[in-house]
Design brief:
The protein is mostly helical and 478 residues long. It has 20 helices and five strands. A three-stranded antiparallel sheet has the order 4-1-5. It has a two-stranded antiparallel ribbon with strand order 2-3.
Length: 478
């Protein structure tokens, strides 16, 4: 491992990419602490410290992805979420809009055009969401006294500043992808999540000091963190390899023998997108009902508790169980958990169906003269691929639901703070492990590419004579 890290700095191009990535990350973290103009940050901080349940709702999820920028209402409060939403919308439109689907098949030119549409959509979504946030801050009294009489100006300033922050984040992500180690957008999301880890560790230590958390939970959560990390890596790398046979064919005067390859189908094709979608959908009614129910009766707020992960309407309280130990798990058996499982499974299958078309794969195999042994090319091959994809997607859905619900169960059933329980699983851990794994692969591929290029140069130098070998050695030393 240490040898690999040392080799990173020996290669000039790779060293430049890493330093460029670190510089872009520094710009991102600095921008995440620049406050929006004329926002009373002290009032905002007090609100997020006191708010819970329906009071925060979907805001807690957004704050996790922005690395705490949302709870401070900085210019990057929206994070990169508008860009992700725009890309998802474009991908869904490709299914129903023939022009976009045709554009996707045009190659690099079509891809650039689609990326341009995603950028326009990002700016539009960021402007709309920031305008809504400006109205929210005015209604909650988060505005400085100087701007209380100039609400329109404040909303416009908020819209321009937050839209500019999101656009800057989008630009940083694209620059990291092009000039850095790659995977820029995902890296920004993972770093935003990881930015909250030091504070969570500090809060956990404080709870241990004041005996609000039993010491037995420290090794339990640490063990769960290791186990869940291993499972996430296994599922992210897991695939079902379908054997493919290439028929013997004649190319010119050469006869190519039959070859056997594999078609890899990922177990978790949808990634973490189903978890994000289901979380956003379930927190939205909870938040809206909480705001509507702030009146005199509060009946709507009571209805909103049905959609809360900490809902008192669960099997534990319904049957009046007073025992502890394993029976505490029944506190998580509520409407929120049931809907979360259903929605996550649904989006796993839905997103897989949108991004992977078995019929197209079968047609491509038929045109290439390849077939799956035991199945005829065409519809029969497509049906077989669809059957295998359905089975492994079921496994992936069960995995996502299980890992994502672990911190929620620990927090709901055993009273552990969510900031501490998130180390044992959850959406954040899935994203962080997946992004780190992908980044390591990209860096490793860069190392292998450099070694392979050097091997080719050595072979050429050996064939050309001793003088060329000496010139190559001099270039390598430089």
């Amino acid at each position: 491992m240490f040898g690999t890290v040392a080799n990173l700095w020996k290669i000039k191009d790779l060293r430049k990419k890493i330093l460029y990535t670190l510089w872009m990350i520094a710009v991102f973290r600095i921008g995440a602490h620049i406050p929006t103009p004329f926002v009373n940050t002290e009032t905002v901080r007090e609100f997020f410290e006191k708010a819970s349940g329906a009071g925060q709702g979907v805001f807690s999820m957004v704050d996790m992805f922005t690395g705490g920028a949302f709870s401070q209402m900085t210019i990057m409060a929206l994070g990169i979420m508008p860009y992700i939403s725009a890309q998802i919308i474009i991908q869904l439109l490709m299914v129903v809009v023939p022009r976009l689907e045709k554009m996707k098949k045009e190659g690099e030119a079509g891809t650039k055009k689609i990326e341009q549409y995603s950028r326009y959509g990002t700016v539009a979504l960021a402007g709309f969401q920031s305008l809504g946030l400006g109205m929210l801050m005015i209604s909650q009294g988060w505005v400085t006294p100087m701007m209380e009489q100039h609400r329109v100006i404040f909303m416009l300033l908020t819209m321009f500043s937050m839209t500019a922050g999101t656009t800057l984040l989008m630009w940083i992500g694209e620059r990291i992808t092009e000039n850095g180690v790659g995977n820029g957008i995902s890296l920004i999301i993972a770093l935003g999540i990881m930015a909250a880890y030091p504070g969570a560790v500090s809060q956990t230590y404080a709870r241990l000091h004041f005996q609000d958390l039993s010491k037995i939970w420290v090794p339990v959560i640490a063990g769960l963190c290791i186990v869940m990390t291993v499972l996430i890596i296994a599922m992210q790398e897991g695939s079902r390899k379908i054997p493919i046979q290439h028929a013997r064919r004649t190319v010119g005067r050469r006869v190519q023998q039959a070859q056997t390859n594999y078609l890899p189908l990922k177990v978790n094709t949808a990634g973490v997108i189903p978890v994000i979608f289901s979380s956003a959908i379930l927190t939205l009614p909870q938040t809206l009902l909480g705001w509507v129910g702030t009146g005199q009766s509060g009946a709507m707020a009571g209805l909103g508790t049905w959609f809360s992960p900490y809902s008192p309407y669960n099997l534990y309280d319904a049957f009046g169980i007073q025992k502890e130990s394993i029976f505490l798990l029944l506190k998580s058996a509520n409407l929120y958990t049931l809907l979360y499982m259903i929605l996550t499974a649904f989006f796993c299958f839905f997103y897989t169906a949108v991004t992977f078309n078995p019929q197209d794969v079968a047609d491509n195999l038929k045109r290439a003269g390849a077939f799956i042994p035991g199945y005829r090319p065409g519809k029969q091959t497509a049906d077989y691929i669809d059957m295998v994809l359905t089975r492994i997607t079921t496994v992936g859905a069960i995995f996502l639901v299980g890992v994502a619900l672990v911190p929620q169960i620990l927090s709901n059933a055993f009273g552990i703070a969510y900031s501490t329980a998130q180390f044992a699983g959850g959406t954040g851990l899935i994203i962080v492990v997946g992004v780190i794994l992908d980044t390591m692969k990209r860096v490793e591929s860069q190392l292998l590419l450099r070694h392979y290029d050097g091997f080719k140069i050595r072979r050429q130098a050996g064939a050309g004579g001793r003088g060329e070998s000496r010139r190559w050695s001099g270039r390598k030393a430089q």
